[in-house]
Amino acid sequence: MSIIKTAAGLQDWLNASDRRNKTLGFVPTMGSLHEGHLSLVRQAREENDLVIVSVFVNPMQFAKGDDFKSYPRDIERDHQLAGAAGADVVFYPSAEEIYVPGCSTTVEVDGEISMKLCGESRPGHFRGVTTVVSILFNITGPDAAYFGQKDAQQALIIKKMVKDLHMPLKIKVCETVREKDGLAMSSRNVYLDPDERRAAAVLNSALEKAQDDLRSGRANCCDTECLRQLIEDEISKEPLADIDYVHVLDAETLEDMSAVMPERPAVAAVAVRIGKTRLIDNRILALK
Question: How many CB atoms lie within 10 A of CB 29?
Fold first, then answer.
């Protein structure tokens, strides 16, 4: 398996691989691959003839003061892991390859779906995400692209972008992969010291409690504000946790809702700083 650094080189590989007569799965990443990423690669491998994994730490989705410079990078490790999981090639472009000299075009999904949650606390972040993902889709031309449920808002925004722009591919959203204590796998977990790593498990335990209360029928469990407050209270019990947001919203649109209903599941989404590390997680809350 090779590393390809240019769009032209990737097109040559696609032509040599008889792309026209084969299905292509694509897994876009920022590298520092972990089991969450690799599960996406394996699913893409099961469902397609060809699989491309991109590794690109996108400067456009980092705000001033974010961890762009310190974001973990190890292309040789990523290359080996991606190949072992079933990728045919790793696309590893430079920023200059993605953002051509003089470029001034961005792609943005407007509305509540982009303005809430991380869109509110990280202005401009999703414009960076949708711009780079649309560029990568144009370069790779996949039949299906694979994303993790951990980044639920991102996945919903990309699905809407693909629908709105009539992009000819399917977006596959795959289950969050977790550590033994329930912490969602993330490249940023490596920033946590041992005490912070222990504390970070509170995100999952708080979301699990909300899910359990909803399904057990405990008092006011369908009320979204009650569920939101329950999650916030649980996280607040951890001294190292600094809450950015806790919301319970419509699972498809991220619109406000007053109650979880059988025909209308919710997503409970949280962002919490543990020390200097910002972590996100979510759970789909459904009555059935």
Answer: 24
> Which helix (H) or strand (E) element contains residue 194?
helix 194-200
How does pLDDT run across 151-191, given as a tens digit for each residue? 999 999 999 999 999 999 999 999 999 999 999 999 999 99
In terms of Cβ atoms closer than 10 Å to its own Cβ (0-12, 13-18, 19+), residue 199 is buried
Report whether 71 contacts 30 (CB < 8 A).
yes
- In this prediction the pTM is 0.95
Domains within the chain, CATH numbers bracketed: 2-174 (3.40.50.620), 187-282 (3.30.1300.10)
Residue 264 DSSP class: B
90's enclosing H/E stretch is: strand 89-91
d(CA 135, CA 199): 38
Q: By C-alpha distance, which of 188, 162, 165 is closest to 32? A: 188
Q: Which residues are catalytic?
A: 37
Contacts (Cβ under 8 Å, ≥6 apart) of 109: 126, 130, 157, 160, 161, 164
